[in-house]
Amino acid sequence: MKKIIALDVDGTLYNNDKNITPATKASLLRAQQKGCILVLASGRLLDSYRLPTNLK
């Protein structure tokens, strides 16, 4: 069975400075390593926020 983690962008994935903290990044990478699929969720248009490219 696949597990999906849906993450709200503002205030959940990103902190107040619009960054992903090292602790959040580490947690997400652990989830991916365990086979979880990460999905971004937002009420905003895709063009209005930058994608977290630093999760590699």
Structure characterization notes:
The protein has 56 residues and is α+β, with helices and mostly antiparallel strands. It is built from one helix and two strands, in the order E-H-E. Strand 1 (4-8), helix 1 (22-33) and strand 2 (37-41) form a beta-alpha-beta unit. The longest helix is centred in the middle third of the chain and has 12 residues, at 22-33. This is Hydroxymethylpyrimidine pyrophosphatase-like HAD family hydrolase. It comes from Pectinatus haikarae.
Indicate the mean pLDDT. Answer: 81
Share of β-strand residues: 15-25%
The Cα radius of gyration reads: 11 Å
The level of helicity is 10-25%
Number of separate strands: 2
Largest sheet: 2 strands, parallel
Count of DSSP H/I helices: 1
Structural class: alpha+beta
Strand order of the largest sheet: 1-2
Residue ranges: pLDDT <50 for 5 or more in a row? none
List the secondary-structure elements in sequence, H or E.
EHE
Q: What overall geometry do the principal axes of the alpha carbons give? A: flat
State the end-to-end distance.
24 Å
Summarize the structure.
The chain has 56 residues and is an alpha+beta fold. 21% of the residues lie in helices and 18% in strands.
